[in-house]
From TrEMBL:
It comes from Hesseltinella vesiculosa. InterPro entries: Cation-dep_OMT, SAM-dependent_MTases_sf, SAM_O-MeTrfase. This is S-adenosyl-L-methionine-dependent methyltransferase. It comes from the Eukaryota. Keywords: Methyltransferase, S-adenosyl-L-methionine, Transferase. GO terms for molecular function: O-methyltransferase activity; S-adenosylmethionine-dependent methyltransferase activity. Belongs to the class I-like SAM-binding methyltransferase superfamily. Cation-dependent O-methyltransferase family. One of its GO terms (biological process) is methylation.
Length: 246
């Protein structure tokens, strides 16, 4: 499916090993009903409605998010960047009985779809959406002394450094919390921006290279920050798993 909706499978196809991802999905535990059907229908409606459906979390990524929630069993989880709610539904489906997810999204239009399918998934009592710029929403949560055991960030790449720094400075990530960050390999271009790594001959747009530089800056920031430790994983477009040190 993802080969058909990615804006340039020529750029991403080999690096992302789309056939291998499909194999991984086929050999992983599927979502239970009604979540499985809701995610399938939501994916189709997102593709039909929005010009950028490729920013949805991939099928393998949603399964990984569900697994992380199952492992961490957060009392409270936070998502920065909901889009149409695919990842929110995946995470909420694995929350413990008393667990809750707050999901932030700046654009109201995709949130309409997200709210619709959270309800179809039977998860309305577990998911709350906050619409508005992420920095203002994070400030509001900090003002309420909120703290989260699991945070998933898949938002505007230029904001990654500021969002992480704010989260750490304001106690939004609990002492034993885990933070997951998506797109840290950004179209396979961060190593080209960094230099010193083997490159391919694929040409990409100036905008992709510009955003890849921002993601590389974030990756560099994460490695240098002595408050945290992190591991970067080559899952789809790259995931970084962050915990506090000590």
């Amino acid at each position: 499916m993802y080969r058909s909706i990615l804006p340039s499978a020529r750029i991403l196809g080999n690096r992302l090993r789309l056939a291998e991802e499909a194999y991984c999905v086929d050999h992983s535990t599927p979502f239970a009903e009604p979540v499985r059907q809701a995610l399938s229908d939501l994916t189709k409606e997102t593709i039909a409605t929005f010009p950028n459906p490729h920013i949805m979390s991939s099928p393998a990524a949603t399964l990984m998010l569900r697994q992380w929630v199952s492992i961490v069993r957060p009392a409270k989880a936070l998502e920065i960047g909901a889009f149409t709610g695919v990842s929110a539904i995946a995470m909420a489906s694995a929350l413990p009985p008393s667990g809750r997810l707050i999901s932030l999204e700046k654009d109201p239009e995709p949130l309409t779809l997200a709210t619709k399918y959270v309800k179809k998934s039977g998860l309305s009592d577990k998911v709350s959406f906050i619409q508005g710029p992420a920095d203002k929403s994070l400030q509001g949560l900090a003002d309420q002394d909120q703290s989260f055991d699991l945070i998933f960030m898949d938002a505007d790449k230029g904001g990654y450094v500021n969002y992480l720094d704010f989260i750490l400075n304001n106690g939004l990530l609990s002492e034993r919390g885990t933070m997951l960050v998506d797109n840290v390999l950004y179209w396979g271009q961060v190593h080209r921006v960094a230099g010193g790594y083997e490159e391919d001959n694929v040409e990409v747009s100036k905008n992709i290279r510009r955003l890849a530089r921002k993601v590389h800056d974030f990756n560099t920031f994460v490695k240098a920050d002595d408050r945290i430790q992190a591991i970067m994983l080559p899952v789809f477009d790259g995931f970084t798993v962050i915990t506090r040190r000590g």
